[in-house]
Fold:
Amino acid sequence: MNESAYLKQLLTLAAKQLKTVVLPESEDNRVLEAAHYVAEIKAVKPVILGNQNHVEEFYKAKGWSLDGIEVIQPETSDKLTSYAQMFYELRKDKGITLDDALKQMHNYNYFGTMMVKAGDADGMVSGANHSTADTVRPALQIIKSTQKGRSVSSAILEVINGKAYILSDCAIIINPTANELADIAVDAAQTALQFGIKPKVALLSYSTKGSGKGEGVDKVTEALSLAKKQLQQQENSIIQIDGELQADAALDAVVAAKKAPDSQVAGQANVLIFPDIEAGNIAYKLLQRLAGAEAYGPILQGLNAPINDLSRGALVEDIVGMIAITALQAAAKK
Ligand SMILES: CC(C)(COP(=O)(O)OP(=O)(O)OC[C@H]1O[C@@H](n2cnc3c(N)ncnc32)[C@H](O)[C@@H]1OP(=O)(O)O)[C@@H](O)C(=O)NCCC(=O)NCCS
Structure:
């Protein structure tokens, strides 16, 4: 496994608080390898959901120990009925029956999410074998957003030439309203702070400070003013925010000096907010594939407890990184 300097740093930080992270995809060898890696260096305590024999045979064939790893088979777990009861209580207003709830707990993403809700685990990482929707839906239904009515969104932590950037939202809210875009910007800045990044937030567009016109530009400028209001209410002066900025004006000091000379963010942005999921998702994957950026995420933001998604193309090191990130988010919540 290729452990970059950044990943090493994440693992060292995670090891200080040894959190429990559920991994519901034991059918995927990359997940089993990642669990071994984090357990062996005592960075995180993984809980693997799946068939005990299958997991034991995989580890035996590799010559690895299961020390520091818990394996739970949801179907035979003594928690199955209590989790079903809890899920039923949470969702009965939506018309589900206790029987529906019990069936749902046989879905490992639901069982794992319920472990987090019940306090039996600190966080969960899934998505190596599931779509974003399948990973995120249980979290939205069970863990819920920190504020009623506020949208959960996501961020990608990308490391390019040793420097960390937050890109948001690349995975959840398909076409955010100005209000949602403002929430995304503020929550992405908070995510940046969790990872030691002093946020300089750029709301990206095809226009810089009125150079272009259109509905997309109007949405971004409205989002900027709404985000500024939120930050003023929070009396948050650590977070600097500006827009609308083109990517070159956001990142390049020479271009910034020409296009947005008065901006405190232009030329130095490290939190990049995209006007919609198409721009965000395409941009983060281009950086990963063409510029060799390390990409961790989608990291969900605005949830009451950390549940995180993986790209189905994730490498073992990406999964290890997401397990460490989830543990660090859990540590920050306590
Ligand atoms: C996130 C996503 C999966 C949720 O959609 P969904 O599963 O159809 O969710 P639903 O509309 O059925 O909503 C399920 C619950 O979550 C809530 N919800 C949906 N999106 C939410 C959000 N962004 N924040 C908070 N709650 C949300 C709903 O209000 C609903 O709550 P309730 O059942 O308690 O009333 C959807 O936005 C999506 O598909 N996004 C794009 C994912 C994707 O393809 N990404 C690209 C690859 S990385």
Remarks:
- The chain has 13 helices and eleven strands.
- The two ends are 31 Å apart (CA to CA).
